[in-house]
Amino acid sequence: MLVVEDVFEDEEDVDEEEVVDDESDVALSVLAGVAEALDLLESRESVR
Question: N or C: which end of the chain has fewer CB within 10 A?
Answer without folding.
Answer: C
